[in-house]
Write a structure and sequence with these properties.
The complex is a heterodimer of chains A (476) and B (465). With 476 residues, chain A is an alpha+beta fold. Chain A contains eleven helices and 22 strands. Chain A has helices at 2-10, 17-27, 85-95, 130-147, 209-213, 215-233, 254-261, 266-270, 331-337, 370-375, 426-429; strands at 34-50, 53-71, 74-80, 151-169, 174-192, 195-205, 240-247, 291-294, 315-320, 323-324, 345-346, 355-356, 360-363, 379-391, 397-409, 412-417, 421-425, 433-436, 441-442, 447-451, 454-462, 465-473. The N and C termini of chain A lie far apart (56 Å). In chain B, the strands form three sheets. Chain B has a six-stranded antiparallel sheet with strand order 3-2-1-4-5-6. Classes of the chains: A alpha+beta (476), B alpha+beta (465). Strand 2 of chain A pairs parallel with strand 3 (81-87) of chain B, so a sheet runs across the interface.
Chain lengths: 476, 465
Amino acid sequence: MFELARSQLLDPTGLDQSDIESTISRLAGGAVDFGELYFQRRVSEAWSLEDGAVKNGSWDVDQGVGVRAIAGAGTGFAYADAITLPALIDAADSARAISRQASRGQVRLAPAITTPERYTHVDPTREGRSADRVELLRTVDAYVRSLDARVSQVSVNISGSHEFILVAASDGTLAGDVRPLVRLDIRVLMEDGDRREQGFAGGGGRYCLAELMDPDFWQPQAKEAVRQAEVNLRAEDAPAGHMTVVLGPGWPGVLLHEAIGHGLEGDFNRKGISAFSNRIGEQVASPECTIVDDGTLADRRGSLAIDDEGTPAGSTTLIENGRLVAYMQDKLNARLMGVKPTGNGRRESFAHLPMPRMTNTYMLPGNHDPGEILASVEDGIYAVNFNGGQVDITSGKFVFAASEAYRVKNGKVGVPIKGATLIGNGPDVLTRVGMVGNDLALDNGVGVCGKEGQSVPVGVGQPTLRIDGLTVGGTH
Amino acid sequence: MASSGSLTVADWLAQPERERETLVGIAKRALDQATEGGAEQAEVSVSSSLAREAGVRLGDIEHLEEARDRGVRVTVYAGQCSGTASTGDLRPEVIDQCVQHALEIARHTQRDRAAGLADPALIAESVDELNSGQLTDLDLWHPEDIAMDRLAERAIEMERSGREADQRIANSEGASVSLEASLSVHGNTLGFMGSRQSTSFSQSCVLIAQDDQGMQRDYDWDSARRWSDLNGPEQTGRHAAEKTVRRLGAKRVPTGPVPVIFAPPVAKGLIGHLVSAASGGSLYRRSSFLLDALGEAVLPEQFSLIESPRLPGGPGSSHFDADGIATREQALVDRGTLARYVLSAYSARRLGTVTTANAGGIRNLRIDGPLTPRDELLAQVGTGLLVTEVMGQGVNLVNGDYSRGAAGFWIENGAIAWPVEEITIAGNLRNMFLGLSAAGDDIDPRNNIQTGSLLIDRMTVAGQG
């Protein structure tokens, strides 16, 4: 994997290891604690269908090198879209401006680390023929329309990307990775009289397009999109107020991502600006809750062989039986906090700085049957699907917006209710977890996490959860 | 083709025409390649920007960034089939490869009757206007090569002013100051080749305040086309401190219906939802709560929304839209009535009508009508909510359902009483806009959508109970 990334990124440019070592030597040394080069090339393609026809297709290629120099807690950063020695030296000199002292000494890179095998070697952007993608979208469209006569609009998108990265740094790091990523999205609009409602389903991961093209993959997604739209056509106004909320398994784990995950990223905690700062060792959740961030799962959208700093991806237990045990770290924040990097240093591209980011974040299963959990609710809501969420890591307040939810009364799931935002307080929401289900599920692979303007693919998951008190933002 | 990789920042800023020539050369090459490759029509956008930013935290430099970004995006049309390709790598061989990919995609996409460049007669008018030499200066280009040290010094001063403004400021997420210069060229095979260049200087400061109850964070910012037009750094720092401290002691409020004032930063988001719902893409997908609403009342009749795309110095100003059609001043909402949709050449054809020169979006939209001072708005509310921040994605443009997390202030006896957090606000956008009781005179001209506070007569607030 490393050799493939190295040859793809460097061979066409004529750069060799000695050029890289000399650039890093120029970059690091003196007051600069750490210097790094990050080479990247990514090819992406996408096809979309609407109105029964594949009207758009796009292709994109981007490549470049990001150069950073760290002195203390300060980072100098520059990048170039040309991978040439003069451009590298130019960027290195800009990044070095973080320190006024001249560099000295010679950096020697360690032998490249062996990249763990975590995903397919197939390049999805070169897999099969364009005609196959067009045919898939048309087949999905016809299938969706055959499911319900009230379907008035269908849009289907398929996308794939293939990325090579190479990281070399003054701490001796030399590592590379080749990452595939594919995704299929199905969006349905259904009309019944005056009402129009939408449904969405999709999925993907770090595997090949052929898997998306398998009817066993896309037919359930198509049915799910139609089912959601149909449920929403029947939805009644959502209640407003503080109540018991049961969250379904899988994608509702976006709760953990927002309420807990961001607040446990190393940068916010090193700066002391997270609602979870200085709370390692404290009980922050019910003893039934154990939450991990695991980048090592095979084929998942949020998985990585190595992170964008060349650290092998890890599986980090963040909360163990309710007790906060670790933060997620990149190299900079780990060094400043005196801990080890956890393989969470990620960046959107060579043109962005890495920072601690989540990979696949989920809660381990508990003991309760989901039916038993619902039966225990006197008055509340059961939310099974969400659009996404947001958090203020300082005050701890977080939201996530339900896209499919039901009223629950006396242990019975009742009428569907319209989409509503749920709001809570991160540091105490998990202390209100009353029951944890035995039905852990991970999401289908559609998560995109945004932080400081950078987007990266992530995964979430959880078993069914009962939360005894969240504010539901309905209209009555 | 000369690579401008060798241009220094100072050269780039002093002689943008050199960079522009490079971009025009790239655009022409791409169009020629597309035509040679069998495209009947093609269009290309090429952009180049440079940015410099200094960030500080607790008095020390946290990041210094130099960015040079370039990109090209080409769309080809062959037999009403289209293909698009883009790259950030402007070497000639990569651009050629890009055009070939676009052509290859167009061989596989299906026929789309609406596909293609805008009406040739309209493009010809734009070409005439470009060639006339009569285009007014939009006053967007005021380059200044401010050194990294000066950016950093200003950031340090801004953060210091903020931290010294109040003892309850316990921490900082930092202050940053940046400059950006961007240049873009858009051309098509009907002979249009337009360009736009602009500068922007920005500063922001994010502070943390603390009391027994916990921490709160807020920020202030400023942005201007001219370096000298930026607010003083101490002003931005002080405002950030005031806004942050004001949030301390926030609590929830009881659940129920109340009048809600949206402060300007969130009011512009509300108007943005109206623009999205009136946009061609939402309409031809039948995914808009304003479907078939043309000519209907969408706001109370005393209010209009006017688009002024050629406003000198405006945040969104441009002579031409992204299709190369000349922009013009026009109402979106005229005395309460939805006067038109927001259309590109493509979406207009999909809807069987003509473009409104809004490819790429709306430009400098401003509320018009009776504007009320903020104090009078508070008095008018009596008891209710002032929202200064909204959170989350709970906006459904298909049916107008709106449910979002919010923070702000409780209003009692016509005055701000205490800070509020961890609540939701909900309603339906169609009703909310019709229930617009008053608009504030506190219009923020720094935004592309320019509105003051907006008072919505009634929304459901959920908090305790």
